[in-house]
Structures are given as C-alpha cells and as structure tokens.
Design a protein that fits this description.
about 400 residues, alpha/beta, Spore Coat Polysaccharide Biosynthesis Protein SpsA, Chain A, 60s Ribosomal Protein L30, Chain: A, 2 domains, 7-stranded mixed sheet, 5-stranded mixed sheet, 12 helices, about 30% helix, binds magnesium ion
C-alpha cells in the first residue's frame, strides 16, 4: 500500500507568535524548526512513500530555508487556502496525480509524533476507511450554566481526544472533501469530521501524550525545555600557545588591549599573542585546525588586522556546531609590560567578543625569572585553554 503524508502548515499560528515574527511552525525548537521536525518524523518512517506540505502563499522562502537538504521523498509544497479545511482539500487535489492508496493528514504543530503512532494509523486503515490517533479523556467533564456555574457532569465514558495524524483511504477522503466543498459544509476542525459527515467509518488508534499540538508560546517554551533536557551535551577542553618577538615600536596589543611599551610585537596582524593563543584553544575544542589555517599570514587582507576578528571567527565556528563556551583562561609570559592594570580591560574586550562574563575569563601573567628568550625580553608568549559544551549527537 502506498501511503502519502500531507502536513498542514498553512496557518498563521497567531497564538504562538508575536506580530512580525514568522508563523509558529517555522520557529526553532532547540535549533531545528517545528515544521522540519514534523516533516522528518514522516520522512524517516519506512511505510510512508512521500511527504508533502501545504503552506501559506507568503511562506515560500521560510519553507525553502526550513527544508534545506531534505531528500526527494519530500515533494514540492502545495498552496493552502483560507481555512484548514480548504488547505487540506487543496492538498489532496495536489496529491491526486501521485496515485497513493492512502493519506495521513497531520498538523505541522505536532512535531513529536512517534513512529508507533504513525504505524498504528496505517494498521487501522485495514479495518476502516478512516483512522484517527486519539486518547481517552481522563479529566472529569463539566457543562457550564449561565454565570459560570456548573450545570452538570458529563460522563467521560467513550469520550476520546482526537489528535493527528488522521489516515484515510485516499479516494474516500478526497471525495468527502470535494462533497463538503460543493455543499458548503464548512467549519469542521478535523478531517475525521469530514469523513463522519460523508458517512465513512473512522477507527480509533492509539495517540500519545507526547504528541501534543504546540499552540501557545507556553507550549513552545515547554517543548524547548524538554528537548534541551533530552539533548546529551559533552564537555571539551583544548589549549593554545603563541609567541611573538619584539621589534621597534611603542606599544603592544595584548588581549585586545593596546598597551604603551618600549617595543612592539612583530607579526602580520596586530601580533596579539594572547588572542592568538585563545583563538587556537577555541578551534581546538572542535578540531577545526588553527589560526594560521583560517587566516594565512601570506594573505595580505590580514595585514595589521585586529586579532579580535580571528577570535570572533573561532567563536562563530563553535556556535554553529550548537556549542556554548563555558570559560576561557590565559597565561601571559612576559618580563614587561605589567598586565595587572589592564586585566579588566582585556576581560571586557574578550567578554564582548565571546559573550562571556568576566568571571569566565581568566587572565594571569608571569615573568620568566630572567630565563630564556622571554627572560631576555626577546618576545612575549601566551598560553590559553578553552572549555565548551557541545551536543553529543546531531539533532536532525
Ligand atoms: Mg601569532
């Protein structure tokens, strides 16, 4: 049996997004959009032959960005209508040419649908032309009387809460939607209601408490917390080292701060050994080469460049992998100048570049007791370490 998934994502979702922000199905949950998560649930299911999304005409760009890199099992999106019912009907019409035996219709705002729930619907289609995922009502139900008083208690026996996916034999639900459209039977809030209206039998299959519909901003926040708690993070630490020799000049750059001195450090950029060591430490946490690889000294565009550029680039590389910098620590080896008076300024510059508070930025200095090249005041060296947390597995 060939089964299509039709994801309904044409709504504006005004309850969960502020004016001017994208509709909620495009908002990110732990770095991955809700719609992409929903689509992936069906793309990854072995018994689903194709996945198609019904979108709002204004959302083409949002959609393309959200679906980047997904396989061809995801077919071109279809334009929806003004109501959910219209959108589903237009989606079904758009699928006719694909010739599927069955279709599972699903809300974009339910990204946590499981493989078991999807399988349950497909299985249930063997005993009825329609099937819904549903859960028994567990709360006691009250009917309201005028004055916000309780009129009576309604038995919850045989009452179910309908979720999606809702599956149907393709031609049966297409005919039902066409008939409802022709006869102007509107206002139905799910596809099972259309099927019932058309006289189709609809089976009940197991839903899931985790298959929630993300409706409000609070729902989104709760889902985000849940995903973060489920994501396994790992901690990584790496080090960096750099040394530059003195040459004629009147200042040195150390830790992003310009310090008057009797000499300057020689180098292609501003020769800030502290930021160079720190940049290498950050690159080390993600195994992404070193500063010389990303900013070759042979490249004239980095002549005299502020080393803050290099540091920010390394931080961006960490962030792009979902990483967060926990702390950084530096030791400067120099007979002079004195570092103490400039420590707070260095923490401020590095803190601004990395988004870290001063208590996460260690800056220490030591002389070399007159020993070796540092002791002979031939140059300045710096060591750095960085600690980051990264998701230990990809989220998509
Ligand atoms: Mg260097």
């Amino acid at each position: 049996m060939s089964t299509a998934a039709l994801i309904v994502a044409a709504g504006r979702g005004s309850r969960a997004s502020s004016p001017g922000s994208p509709p909620k199905q495009y908002s990110l949950l732990n770095g991955v959009s809700i719609l992409r998560r929903t689509v992936l649930a069906f793309l990854n299911h072995p018994r689903i032959s194709s996945v198609t999304v019904v979108i709002h005409a204004d959302d083409d760009d949002l959609y393309m960005a959200a679906m980047k890199g997904l396989p061809a099992k995801l077919t071109m999106p279809l334009a929806g209508g003004t109501t959910r019912q219209d959108s589903v009907r237009l989606g079904l019409e758009g699928l006719v040419a694909q010739g599927h035996d069955a279709v599972l219709i699903h809300d974009a705002a339910r990204p946590f649908v499981s493989e078991e729930v999807i399988s349950g619907i497909i299985d249930a289609l063997a005993r009825a032309p329609g099937a819904i995922a549903a859960l028994p009502v567990t709360d006691t139900l009250k009917e309201e009387a005028p004055g916000l008083l309780v009129a009576r208690t309604i038995s919850r026996d045989r009452l179910w809460r309908a979720q999606t996916p809702q599956g149907f034999r393709f031609n049966a639900i297409l005919d039902a939607h066409r008939a409802a459209h022709t006869q102007k039977a509107g206002g139905m809030t799910d596809d099972a209601a259309i099927a019932e209206w058309a006289g189709l039998r609809v089976a009940i299959a197991p839903g899931s408490e985790t298959n929630i519909k993300l409706t409000t901003i609070e729902d989104l926040a709760m889902a985000e917390r849940r995903l973060q708690a489920e994501t396994a993070y790992e901690t990584r630490t790496a080090t960096g080292f750099d040394v530059h020799r003195f040459t004629e000049g009147d200042h040195v750059w150390l830790g992003g701060v310009k310090i008057p001195h009797t000499q300057r450090l020689d180098g292609h950029s501003d020769a800030d050994v502290v930021l160079h060591a720190l940049t290498d430490a950050l690159l080390g946490t993600i195994g992404d080469g070193d500063i010389g690889q990303h900013f070759p000294p042979s490249d004239p565009q980095w002549k005299g460049a502020s080393s803050i550029l290099f540091l920010k680039d390394a931080a961006r590389r960490v962030t792009e992998r979902g990483g967060r910098i926990v702390n950084v620590d530096m030791t400067i080896l120099a007979e002079a100048p004195k570092i103490g008076p400039h420590r707070a300024a260095m923490q401020a510059v590095i803190g601004a570049a990395l988004g870290l508070s001063a208590d996460r930025i260690g800056i220490k200095a030591t002389t070399n007791e007159g020993l070796g090249y540092i002791g002979r005041r031939e140059g300045i060296a710096a060591m750095a370490s960085a600690t980051v947390t990264l998701p230990s597995t990809a989220t998509d």
